[in-house]
Amino acid sequence: MEIARVRLCIDGQWIDSADGVVREIRSPFDNGLVAQAAEATADDVEQAIAAARRAFDSGPFPHWTLEQRCALVARVADLLERDAQLIAAAESADTAKRLLEAEYDIADVIAVFRHFAALGRALHERQVDVGRPEIDSRIVYEPVGVCGLIGPWNYPLLQLAWKVAPALVAGCTFIMKPSELTPSSAAHLMRILMEAGTPDGVANLLLGAGAVVGAPLTSDPRIDLVSFTGGLATGKRIMAAAAATVKKVALELGGKNPHIIFADADLDAAIDNAITAAFLHSGQVCSAGTRLLVERAVHDQVVDAIVERARRIHLGGPADPLTETGALISEAHLVKVQKYCLDGIAEGAVLRTGGQRSTAPGLERGWFFEPTVLDNCNTRMRCVQDESFGPILTVEVFDSEAEAVALGNDTIYGLSGGVWTRDEAKAQRVAGALRHGTIWVNDYGPYRPEAEWGGFKQSGIGRELGVDGLHEYLEAKHIWRNTTPARSGWFASEGTTA
Ligand code: TXE
């Protein structure tokens, strides 16, 4: 296989890093080399921030009309469609997710660009009726400015697309930094942005470690907004760093998502969805349904069925047509997932299946972890409270609707949750009472570019997608124009001043 060379792109130029250092990107499936990525230095970061600032302050882009920007974003969607296969293959190689899954993800990326192009066309200034005919009072929308867009490794291009597409429609300039583990698809996006006609400096690509490349994007005074998807600990650091210059922050920090099954549910569908919710992409999904809350009366039936099916999930590499889910992203992540499992058992959880690294034939060199079910859990356990981001499903039982809601909300996170019941009124009550950003009723997992995505509580700040996902990148400005200027008359008139 040809080893891809991934470079930085600053001010319209593809470059190696200032000191020529390269990071090896290795497949989580077999540790084989899949790409070599330029590792940006502090000097490269400086150049990129300066380029994005220049492009915003004095380049041609700020003079583009909204219609032109939307046309650009629509062109990007077309080009992504043309190269979808190539990009999916690159992303599958970096992440070791099966090719089919990567293809779905790229289709979603394209849909995101199309959504924001259409949404932008519908963006209008707003007239405010102040009750005085001589006053023209308008709310207009302007770009926030220069943005630092920092992405994770689980859905590398999709998570960046949620940021890049609205930033462009809004008229912002930006520096994107994908995870250092998965840089390849972002480089394809950068190539396409340039081909679509994005002016130099508007979009810039930096690659490399969070501490050296990501951190300056969160503290540099020339950056106006930082949008970040990743872990809670990093999110807190970013928010603190951004505070020094009061940057706008948009944070998506994962979740610990309750998946509630009542005894009156369609159990066949609920069990099947519970398995997908927990083990899709080996649990490396911010909205994974990793906390199963099951009504006591059906606990044994539900958990036995999940355990039996979890044992049969086919782990494999990206090219294996039998693969149902793949490897964890890295050895370090595997160690962390294993620890959550062991800690859970030490705290009293009952291991029903899985619980260890899989070294089945063909998987020995990869970071595979067996789909795991921990029964007899409670909210005091770390494996229930912390996001393990691995294929670990924890099970808690409840006896009443109130208890299900209380358990579902007993988490610092608030990203998503699911509820299964045939009782419509109960479903509505529970959906209303759960403090999470997305609730699925008798379903789990679908999201739409047209619908806002984001978290309550410590799952983050702000929303991506939908309408709000564009407004993150816009400043609302109120322009008040008096068509018949007159004296204010507040202070004493000339005739009466001393
Ligand atoms: O994420 P990090 P990690 C969760 C999941 C996972 C945990 C840690 O629970 O186990 O996070 O994963 C960049 N300033 N999620 O360590 O560190 C980094 O280079 C600026 C949830 O991989 O958050 C990468 O580009 N940037 C999640 C990005 O932040 C910094 C998806 C994410 O890395 C930085 C992934 C810094 N100081 C993990 N430090 C979700 N919400 O979907 C790191 N980065």
Instruction: Determine the N-to-C terminus distance.
Output: 89 Å
Q: Can you give the mean pLDDT?
A: 97
Shape: globular
Q: How large is the share of residues in beta strands? A: 15-25%
Q: State the total count of DSSP E strands.
A: 21
Overall structural class, as computed from helix and strand content, comes to: alpha/beta
Residue share in helix: 25-40%
Count of helical regions? 15
Largest sheet: 7 strands, mixed
Radius of gyration of CA atoms, rounded to a whole number? 25 Å
Low-confidence region ranges: none
Give the neighbour order of strands across the main sheet. Answer: 15-16-17-14-13-18-19
Topology (SSEs and partners):
Blueprint: E1 4-6, E2 8-10, E3 13-15, E4 22-26, E5 33-38, H1 42-58, H2 66-82, H3 84-95, H4 99-121, E6 126-127, E7 135-143, E8 146-150, H5 156-170, E9 173-177, H6 184-195, E10 203-205, H7 210-219, E11 225-229, H8 232-243, E12 248-252, E13 258-261, H9 267-279, E14 291-295, H10 299-310, H11 331-346, E15 350-353, E16 372-375, H12 382-385, E17 392-398, H13 401-409, E18 416-420, H14 424-433, E19 438-441, E20 460-461, H15 468-471, E21 474-482
Parallel strand pairs: 1-5, 8-9, 8-11, 9-10, 11-12, 13-14, 13-18, 14-17, 16-17, 18-19
Antiparallel strand pairs: 2-3, 4-5, 6-7, 7-21, 12-20, 15-16
Helix pairs in contact: 2-4, 2-5, 2-6, 3-4, 4-5, 9-10
Bound molecules: ligand TXE.
Ligand TXE binds next to helix 7 and helix 8.
